[in-house]
Amino acid sequence: MLLSTLMRRRALGVFLSTTLLVLSVLLLSTEGTITTEVWALLLLIPLPVAIALSPENDEISDSDERRMEWDDGETNTEHSEVADPLDSGFDIPIL
User: Fold this and answer.
1) Residues 41 and 20 sit within 8 Å (Cβ to Cβ)
2) CA distances from 81 to 2, 13, 78, 88 (A)
3) What are the Cα distances from residue 49, in Å, to 8, 18, 53, 74, 94?
4) Which of 12, 77, 84, 86 has its CA 20 to 30 A from that of 68?
């Protein structure tokens, strides 16, 4: 089953890429010049190729086994007084 879905996805990617290429060549021949539509179709060609060549991913990313719990530890809720920036050597920007 995995092989058939992979083959279907690759066939669809090749078909879409070929269709985009043929459409861009047809537009180029009818317009007589390279227009933005032709460039847009040419720039879209790598997307179906990338989808066709991407590997199959059956792994679940948010499984409970792989989820890590982070311990924040002791959080310091006391707020210390912030020193004056001029005392630390910072300049005040003038806009």
Assistant:
1) yes
2) 62, 61, 10, 14
3) 13, 10, 6, 50, 53
4) 77
Which pairs from 37-45 meet CB under 8 Å and 24+ separation?
44/20, 45/17, 45/20, 45/21
CA distance 51 to 44: 12
Structure confidence at residue 41 (pLDDT): 92
- 10-59 pLDDT, tens digit per residue, is 889 999 999 999 999 999 999 999 999 999 999 999 999 898 888 776 66
* Look-up of token digits 């199959």: 56
- Cα–Cα distance measured from residue 52 to residue 7, given in angstroms and rounded to the nearest whole number: 9
Contact of 42 with 6, CB cutoff 8 Å = no
The H-assigned helical ranges of 1-95 are 2-31, 36-44, 46-53
